[in-house]
Amino acid sequence: MNKIAVFGGSFDPVHKSHIQIAKFALNFFELKKLIFVIAYIPPHKIKQYACVDDRIVMLKLAAGNLEKTDISLYEVQRRETVYSYQTLDYFQSLYSKDEIYMVIGSDSLLDLPAWENIDYLTDRYKFIVAKRSGIKINEDTKYLDKCVFIDQEIENISSTKIRELIRKDSTKIVSLLDEKVYNYIIKNGIYK
């Protein structure tokens, strides 16, 4: 049975840690494929800062050349909030002979108990968890038995912090983004 991972997010903007997570997941777990899924309206966020079309372009610029990856517009095309269990069920229906995983950060692992239909989700799927510095996971963490961890800590980059830095001084974010994404943001005045 092959493994396929779904990596969902706002990608507002996509940054180097997102790409690092994807590469590590592909390498550590010998995935057949990793699918980036852009959230149209994430259930846990108040708003999006870049329009969905800009977020799609930025993700294509950052991840378009990664081997064994796809970018899915499944949630975008639904034009509504789509919950993780619905997205994973959709991909399980497409890849019925494969095992579906969801890629999350360790901060999201701590939030899992609040996710919509979480018991259904954790009964059917497993999580590939990227360790983020400063996030403590202990043996009492709920759903730990449903997780496999990327063995390397991921650089702790935040899309929120990037948006704040852009408003103050865009030169400080150069090292946090793919060069093509940085140029796209500056050229189009996104997050100003």
Write the layout of secondary structure elements.
Blueprint: E1 3-9, H1 16-28, E2 33-38, H2 52-63, E3 69-72, H3 74-78, H4 84-94, E4 99-105, H5 106-111, H6 118-124, E5 126-130, E6 147-149, H7 159-168, H8 179-188
Parallel strand pairs: 1-2, 1-4, 2-3, 4-5, 5-6
Mean pLDDT, as a whole number?
92
What best-fitting shape do the alpha-carbon axes yield?
globular
What percentage of the residues does DSSP assign to strands (E)?
A: 15-25%
Helix and strand sequence: EHEHEHHEHHEEHH
Q: Taking strands numbered 1, 2, ... along the chain, how are they ordered across the largest sheet?
A: 3-2-1-4-5-6
CATH superfamily: HUPs
Q: What's the total helix number? A: 8
What is the correct CATH architecture? Answer: 3-Layer(aba) Sandwich
For the biggest sheet, the summary is: 6 strands, parallel
CATH topology: Rossmann fold
Give the structural class: alpha/beta
Poorly predicted ranges = none
Taking all Cα atoms into account, the compactness measure Rg is 16 Å
Number of domains: 1
Q: Using DSSP, what is the number of strands?
A: 6
Distance between the termini: 46 Å
| CATH class category | Alpha Beta
Which bin fits the share of residues in helices?
25-40%
